[in-house]
Amino acid sequence: MYLGLDLGTSGVKALLIDAGQSIIGSGHASLDVSRPHPGWSEQNPADWIRACEEAIAELKGSHPEQLAAVKGIGLSGQMHGATLLDAGDQVLRPCILWNDTRSHAEAAKLDADPRFRKLTGNIVFPGFTAPKLVWVKNNEPDIFAKVAKVLLPKDFLRLWLSGEHISEMSDSAGTSWLDVGKRDWSNDLLSATSLDEGQMPSLVEGTEKAGALRSELASKWGMQAGIPIAGGAGDNAASACGMGTVAAGQAFVSLGTSGVLFAANASYLPNPESAVHTFCHALPDTWHQMGVILSATDSLNWLSEISGKGAGELTAELGDTLKAPTGVSFLPYLSGERTPHNDSAIRGSFTGLAHESSRAVLTQAVLEGVAFAFRDGLEALAKAGTTLTRATAIGGGSRSHYWLKAIATALGLPVDIPADGDFGAAFGAARLGLIAATGADPLRVCTAPATDATIEPVAALSDAYADAYQRYRLLYPAIKAATA
C-alpha cells in the first residue's frame, strides 16, 4: 500500500492506493482560514497536524490492515505559504498563505530587481513566499530575527512526520528563491531578501526519498517505522502526476476555487512578461507552465450566494445546449487576477446589462467569463512557446458539461473528461510515494486515466465566441482606467 497526503487550503486528505494503483480508501479533515485584516489569509500550522491526524485516524478506522501495509508516503500541498520556524523548530507566527496579498509592495520592489525574473522565470507575485519574508522583516522585525527555517506547508508536515527539513523542486519553484532552470536555491535571490541557504530546507526531486516516518507516529497509526517519504509536489504538480500530465504537450484545465491551465514541458520555457507561471515539475528534468485565474468556481459560488440558488441549479437553468453569448460580459476578477494581468487590485464586473438580463443570462456570462479567462491563459502559454492540442478537465466545476462546452469553444480545443475516479493531488502524492519506495519508472506510474467522454468545440458558435472574447479583452483596460 502507498499513502498520499494532500494539505489543501480547506482540508487535509489522506488517500491509500495499492501496488496496482487502485484506490483503497481515504480520510479527510477540514481546515479554516483566518483573515484578520483585508487581504490577509493565514492558518496555524498546528491545525495542519491536527487535520492530518484526523484524516489518518479515519483511514485507520476503516482500513487498519491496509494502513499497516504502507511501504511509501507521498506529500502534496498548497504552495507559496511562509511557515517560519525558530532554531528549535517552533512556529513563530501563523503561516501566511498563497492567497494573502499584504506583501504587494514588497513583491513589486523585488520584481523590479531583474535578477528575480531572470533566475526564477516568473514575476514575483504577492502570493509568493519571498515577498512575505520581506514583509515580515519590515513589519515584524523581532520575528524575522528569529527565523531559522522557512518551510512550505507540506514540508512542515514532513518535518512533523520525519524530523527532516527537506523540500522538492516543484513547490520550491514558487518561492521566488529557486533558480528554476538549474533546480537549486539562488544565493543572490536569498541575499536580496536578507536570507541565506542555511535557512532553506535541502532539496530533492519529487520522486526521491526525503525523510522517513518517525517511530512514534508509526506506532500510533499501526504502521512500520522508517517508511520512506517521497519529496512529493506542490498541489498542481501533484495533480498533474495524478492525471498523468507529465510529458510535453499534455495539459489539463482545472475548474476549482481558482482555475489553472497546466501544461507539461520537457524543457525550461520561461516567459514572465505574460504572467505565466513556469515551475519545475515533480519529475526530474521536467518543467511545467500554468496560466492561473484566481476566481473560477468561486465566481459561480459568488453568484449562487447572491441569487440564493445553488450552483448546480444555476447551471441547470441553461440546459445542455451551448448558447451564443448574449452581449452581457463578466470579468471574473473577484480577488484580482494572475494571468495575464498580475493585478491584485482589479475587481470583477458585469457589463452590457439590460432589463431583459435574467438570472440565466448572468449565469451564462459568469461561465463565459471564466472560459475567456482560460483563453487568456492559453494565449499566454502560446507566447511562452507552448502549443496545446487538447486538455483534460478536472475539478468540481467540470461536472457542468455546459461549462466544459463553453471552455472548449473558447479555447478552440477538445476537452477530455476522465473516467470516474480520484486523480487529484492526493492520488499524485501516493504515486510519488510508490515511485520513491520502489524505484519504479515515473512515466510508467504516472499514466493518464481512461477518457470517459470528449467535449468538442461547438463550431457553429466559434465566431460568436471569438467576437465575445474580443469584447472581453477590451474590458480589462477600460475597468482598470475607470478604477485607477
Radius of gyration: 22 Å
- Helical coverage, percent range: 25-40%
Biggest beta sheet attributes? 7 strands, mixed
Shape: globular
| % residues in beta strands | 15-25%
The stretches of 5 or more residues where confidence is low (pLDDT under 50) are none
Please give the alpha-carbon distance between the first and last residues.
55 Å
Average the pLDDT over all residues and give the rounded result: 96
Strand line-up in the sheet with most strands: 18-19-17-16-22-23-24
Number of DSSP strand runs: 24
Helical segment count: 18
Please state the structural category.
alpha+beta
Structure description:
- It is a single chain.
- By secondary structure, the chain is of the alpha+beta class.
- The chain has a seven-stranded mixed β-sheet with strand order 18-19-17-16-22-23-24. A five-stranded mixed β-sheet has the order 3-2-1-5-15.
- α1 crosses α7, α11 packs across α16 and α14 packs across α15.
- The radius of gyration is 22 Å and the shape is globular.
- The mean pLDDT is 96.
Question: What topology emerges from the helices and strands here?
Answer:
Elements: E1 2-7, E2 11-17, E3 23-30, E4 42-43, H1 45-62, H2 64-68, E5 72-77, E6 83-85, E7 95-96, H3 104-111, H4 114-120, H5 129-139, H6 141-145, E8 149-151, H7 153-162, E9 166-168, H8 169-172, E10 178-179, E11 184-185, H9 187-192, E12 202-204, E13 209-212, H10 215-221, E14 228-230, E15 233-234, H11 235-243, E16 251-255, E17 259-265, E18 277-280, E19 287-293, H12 297-307, H13 311-316, E20 329-331, E21 349-351, H14 359-383, E22 391-394, H15 401-411, E23 415-418, H16 425-438, H17 442-445, E24 451-455, H18 462-483
Parallel strand pairs: 1-5, 5-15, 9-12, 16-22, 22-23
Antiparallel strand pairs: 1-2, 2-3, 4-7, 6-8, 10-11, 13-14, 16-17, 17-19, 18-19, 20-21, 23-24
Helix pairs in contact: 1-7, 3-5, 11-16, 12-14, 14-15
